[in-house]
Amino acid sequence: MTLKVAFLGPEGTYTHQALIQQFGTESDVEIYSQAAISDCFQVLDSKEVDYAVVPFENSTNGQVVYTYDLLRDWYIPSSQDQNNDENQHIAPKFRIVGEQFVSIHHNFLSNAKTLDDVTTIYSHPQVWGQVTKFLSKHITKKISKLDSDSTSKAAEIVNNDKSGTSACISSKISADLYQLPILFENIENSSNNTTRFLVLGYDEINSHPLGPENDSHPKAYVTSIIFTLDHDDPGALCAVLDTFKKNNINLTSINSRPSHLKQWQYVFFVELVGSINDENVSASINSLSSNCLTLEVLGSFQRCWRYWSEQ
């Protein structure tokens, strides 16, 4: 059976690398490059593809807010939904079914003869915060920094620019793909810079593809939930956290984004150690309904072995 997988394109992006790590390069996998993360959600929801791979967070720069906001918009009703009986919000059927971790090594690519010839630099907006040391040391304020849809798209723009005055911050894969010279390599602030990607889909996947044969890492699971609380209820968030503590559940991350329900009300993202099939996890989530206005389980999946190898 041929699997159809969407990803944030074009080819040569770090998301493309995450896709390869998860699904390989066999002929029974068809890949579909998407121009935006939102397009990945859309083609998955319409079942044009079986899975979608999207960036989620970076070890240096934190959240990929586009993905967080899309998860919010797809799973949590907006104020418009709540005020329109004819347009009731229905959460999608797809869930987070896996994850991948990609070591990020940024390179400065350009056809310019020297750095002095560069007038414009392109890259994905998430990248700028990961290369601040390089920028402060080598790039003057006279050089414009422009956002692109992806690091690979940035390389494509530079490749098509025949003036020799543009540059990009991108991957070695993109350098090879577009045959662009690498003027500076591994310019990221941290050598441990890693991005985590989510695999969205309808069916479970093998979370240890292409892993080491002697993999000794524990078989761990992660469950991700999203919820909203009554902004005027004192201690509502504390009650949620206390529920997990009482059930001996370790929370690995808590993040928030504006809820779009009303001003200064937030939606919370929580990731915890354990499977939804574990009695203490399921009991905790079931008991949260009395504290939460809305709650959805985004997914419960096996931890990728690269989680340990990238630390």
**Elements, N to C (H/E):** EHEHEEHHEEEHHEHEHEEEHEEHEH
- CATH homology group of the largest domain: ACT domain
Number of domains: 2
Structural class: alpha/beta
Q: Could you report the average pLDDT, rounded to the nearest whole number?
A: 90
Runs with pLDDT <50, length 5+? none
CATH topology of the largest domain: Alpha-Beta Plaits
Termini Cα gap: 35 Å
What is the strand content? 25-35%
- Major pleated sheet: 6 strands, mixed
Indicate the overall shape: globular
Number of beta strands? 15
**Helix coverage percent:** 25-40%
Provide a quick synopsis of the model.
The chain is α/β, with parallel strands linked by helices and 311 residues long.
Report on the architecture of this protein.
The chain is an alpha/beta fold and 311 residues long. It has two domains: 3-103 and 195-310, Alpha-Beta Plaits (2-Layer Sandwich), CATH 3.30.70; 107-191, Periplasmic binding protein-like II (D-Maltodextrin-Binding Protein, domain 2, 3-Layer(aba) Sandwich), CATH 3.40.190.10. It has helices at 14-23, 37-45, 65-75, 79-82, 125-128, 132-138, 151-160, 172-178, 236-246, 279-287, 306-309; strands at 3-8, 29-34, 51-58, 62-63, 95-103, 107-110, 120-123, 144-147, 166-170, 182-184, 194-201, 221-229, 251-258, 266-273, 292-302. Strands 1, 2, 3, 4, 5 and 11 form a six-stranded mixed β-sheet that branches. Strands 8-7-9-6-10 form a five-stranded mixed β-sheet. A four-stranded antiparallel β-sheet has the order 13-14-12-15. β1 (3-8), α1 and β2 (29-34) form a beta-alpha-beta unit. α7 packs parallel to α8. The protein is globular, with a radius of gyration of 21 Å. Pathway: Amino-acid biosynthesis; L-phenylalanine biosynthesis; phenylpyruvate from prephenate: step 1/1. Pfam families: ACT, PDT. InterPro entries: ACT-like_dom_sf, ACT_dom, Chor_mutase/pphenate_deHydtase, Preph_deHydtase, Preph_deHydtase_CS. Keywords: Amino-acid biosynthesis, Aromatic amino acid biosynthesis, Lyase, Phenylalanine biosynthesis. Residues 4-202 form the Prephenate dehydratase domain.
